[in-house]
C-alpha cells in the first residue's frame, strides 16, 4: 500500500510520462525538450530530472509503458470472444490504431537509437505476442478454419511480411480514400487469397 508521499510521487511521474507521450504524437523526436515537457506538465525541470535522470531515460520509460499497454490490449482481445478472422485481422493490423497514436517511423527511429528499448520490445514480442499468435493459429487449424496443409511457420512468415510492409500498406490505404475498406480487402486476401471464399 502506497503512503501519501509515494502516491503523490506516482501521480507526478504519471503526469510527466503522459505529457511526454502526448508530445510524441505531434512533435518530431528532435523537437522534444525537457523544458517543453516541464512547461506542459506544469512541473519543474528539476523534478523531471529527479524522476528520470535524462530525456533518453524518460523516453525509454514512456515507450516501455506504451508497448506494455499494446501487449496487454492484444492479450485481452485475443482472449475475448472474437472470430478467427477478427483475431487474424487484429494481429496483422495491430498497429492500425497505434499508427493514429504514434507513427511507425518515429517508433522505428526510437528503437534504432535505443538498443535497450529495442531488446525490451523484441522480448515482449517473442515471449507474449508470438506464443499467443501461435495458439490462435493452432486453434484455427483444429477447428478447420485454417487449412492443415499450411504450416504454423508459413502463416507466421506471411504475417511478418504484412507487418514489415506496414507503413507502405497504411500509406496506400490512406491514399485510397477509404482506409477501412482498403485494409479489409487486404485481410480478405490474406485470409482467402485472390479467389475469395469457395
From TrEMBL:
UniProt xrefs under SUPFAM superfamilies: Homeodomain-like, Tetracyclin repressor-like, C-terminal domain
Any one GO molecular function term: DNA binding
Keyword annotations of the record: DNA-binding
All copies of domain HTH tetR-type, residue ranges: 10-70
Top-level taxonomic group: Bacteria
Listed InterPro entries: Homeodomain-like_sf, HTH-type_Tx_Regulator, HTH_TetR, Tet_transcr_reg_TetR-rel_C_sf
PROSITE patterns, per the entry: HTH_TETR_2
DNA-binding region as annotated in the record: 33-52
Pfam family, one: TetR_N
Protein's UniProt name: TetR family transcriptional regulator
Source organism per UniProt: Paenibacillus nasutitermitis
Lineage: Bacteria, Bacillati, Bacillota, Bacilli, Bacillales
Amino acid at each position: 500500500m502506497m503512503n501519501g508521499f509515494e502516491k503523490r510521487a506516482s501521480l507526478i511521474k504519471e503526469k510527466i510520462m503522459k505529457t511526454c507521450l502526448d508530445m510524441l504524437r505531434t512533435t518530431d523526436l528532435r523537437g522534444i525538450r525537457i523544458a517543453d515537457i516541464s512547461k506542459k506538465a506544469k512541473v519543474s525541470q528539476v523534478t523531471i530530472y529527479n524522476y528520470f535522470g535524462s530525456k533518453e531515460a524518460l523516453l525509454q520509460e514512456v515507450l516501455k509503458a506504451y508497448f506494455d499497454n499494446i501487449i496487454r490490449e492484444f492479450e485481452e482481445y485475443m482472449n475475448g470472444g472474437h472470430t478467427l478472422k477478427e483475431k487474424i485481422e487484429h494481429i496483422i493490423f495491430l498497429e492500425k490504431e497505434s499508427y493514429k497514436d504514434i507513427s511507425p517511423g518515429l517508433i522505428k527511429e526510437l528503437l534504432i537509437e535505443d538498443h535497450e528499448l529495442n531488446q525490451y520490445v523484441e522480448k515482449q514480442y517473442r515471449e507474449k505476442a508470438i506464443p499467443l499468435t501461435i495458439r490462435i493459429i493452432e486453434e484455427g487449424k483444429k477447428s478447420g478454419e485454417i487449412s492443415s496443409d499450411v504450416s504454423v511457420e508459413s502463416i507466421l512468415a506471411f504475417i511478418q511480411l504484412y507487418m514489415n510492409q506496414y507503413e507502405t500498406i497504411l500509406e496506400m490505404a490512406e491514399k485510397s480514400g477509404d482506409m477501412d475498406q482498403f485494409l479489409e480487402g487486404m485481410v480478405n486476401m490474406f485470409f482467402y487469397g485472390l479467389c475469395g471464399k469457395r
